[in-house]
Amino acid sequence: MLEIAGDYGERQIELRDGALWYARTGVSSGQRRLVCVGDDTFVIDGVSDFKLEFERERDGRVSGVTGHYRMRGPDYNARVD
Q: Could you give the residue ranges of the DSSP H alpha helices within 1-81?
C-alpha cells in the first residue's frame, strides 16, 4: 500500500494507521478511507458509485490513477511526486 500513497495532482492518497486515505482538491468531504476490492482497485468506504484504479509501469511503479464513475466517463490523474 505504501507504493500507492502519493500526490496525483487533484487527488492525494495518504497511508495512515495501516489504511489508505483519499482526498480530492475542491471536494469538501475531507479524507475518506479506501477499501481494496481487487488488484490496484479501491472504493471509498461507504460510496458505491465510484472506484479508483491505480496504473503501474512495467517496473511496478505506480504512475497514475483513474477514477471510474457509474454515471459518467472516467478521469485520469498522473502521479506527480
A: none
